[in-house]
Amino acid sequence: RARPRLRQFDIGDRFSRLPLPRAAVLLPLLVRAGRLHLLLTVRSLQVPGAPGNHRGAIPAAARPSAPPVPARVPKGPAGCFYTLCAGVCMNNLVTPVVGFIEETFQVTPNPDEVSEVFVVPLEYFVKPLNYKTFSYKTSSGYSTRVHCFIYHDQEHRKSFKIWGLTAHFAVFLALVIFGERPTFEVDYDLDNLFSSSENYFTNLYASIHERKKSNL
After folding, report:
1. Could you give the CA distance from residue 103 to residue 29 in angstroms, rounded to a whole number?
2. 85-96 residues labelled b (16+ CB within 10 A) or e (exposed)
3. Which pLDDT score is estimated for 47?
4. What is the pLDDT of residues 97-119, one digit of tens each?
5. Is the torsion defined by CA of 77, 165, 108, 21 positive or negative?
6. What number does CATH give the domain 1-47+59-211?
7. Other CB atoms within 10 Å distance of the CB of residue 174
8. Domain boundaries, the chain
9. Max alpha carbon distance in the chain (Å)?
């Protein structure tokens, strides 16, 4: 049931010609007990400049799993990869690539890059138990919301903080698949999710791009 929704929102390489360095993250979905879950990792403290360098009771920012994948991922015969609306992080064009993995998939993380692996029910990103938000304003004055989720993982018996671009992509993915209103405010017109998400990205990119031009 999720695949037709993902196909409807697949943008392909629509933003690939923008003059920004490109990157991509993988959003791996799997089914457990009849519910979609998103697999996430926590960066190792050994990764230079990673959010995981911030020590605390809650492991720092989680990110989508696996090494970077090309911004344009070739689709298999079943259309197994889907690219959703992009984001901008550290002046990079970041494309979220959604894929499905088997429930039996065994994760073997590289300890030099990943300290922990966990899964979160996808609906948590529209109906969270522990959520807060704060506003962020770019140097050009464009304002946006930053989502922050605290998820208590019974399997690991600890809480994980999911925020920033990871949370942004997770929220948008949940909105696309479930097609229902979240329990918190978002920066989209939920009655016109596709077009409003493109407008959101375009405005964000314009604010970043104008700053880049002013620095030249």
Report:
1. 9
2. bbbbeeebbbbb
3. 64
4. 898 988 888 888 888 888 888 99
5. positive
6. 3.90.79
7. 21
8. 1-47+59-211
9. 53
